[in-house]
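ugh ok fine here u go
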Amino acid sequence: MATQIAKKIVVVGGGNSAGYFARAVVAAGRGADLLICSAEEVLPYERPALTKAFLNETGPARLPGFHTSVGGGGERQNQEWYDANGVEVHLGTRVVAWDPSAKTVTTDKSTSIGYEKLVVAIGCTALKLPASMGGDLPGVHYVRDNADALSLYDAMAGAKAPVVIGGGEFFFIFVWEIRLTTSCFVHRASTVPPCTAPRFGSGVRTITTRNRRRCWDPPVHPRTLTSPPSD
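structure:
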């Protein structure tokens, strides 16, 4: 039999925005009206830290050090903070159904939660390679949450020939950290022209292409990524 809960405000998602939203609700004196459902097993945190201080070789950032709202100059919202302010948080809980007419959401724990206002704060997911192209092989990492970042950090110590697909901010941070901790050669597959030589020197090889699909060609993963993905 499903458990039933009713709250005035329900947040689906437990990332950065959920934490700051909770701070605003508490500041308005309505903490007891709020319930947060988060698929992660940890309280809302400053997600940008996962690809920055989290990767430091010495003294890497770890929870609870960067729970929201420390990034915005606020206090660290640990479990004691949520309890003291009456905010109910369900960790490790996914919302699997929504009934807008009844104003309820249902979780994977068979809990039906009624609401007056619903906030959807699930964020985005990392783009993943298809399994047929090796996307689920050991050693292929995606950074979306705390568990992903921990797995990547552990893998960096033994990395021999890392490949980074993409050329954004994370690429620069990752290469900086891995070149500090290892002497391995870093490959970069990106549609963005190279601009890393002044900082990283010969430690970075860039595979630049105008066609995004060509990023999957060798030498990115010569054993499995042998052709571009089909349309």
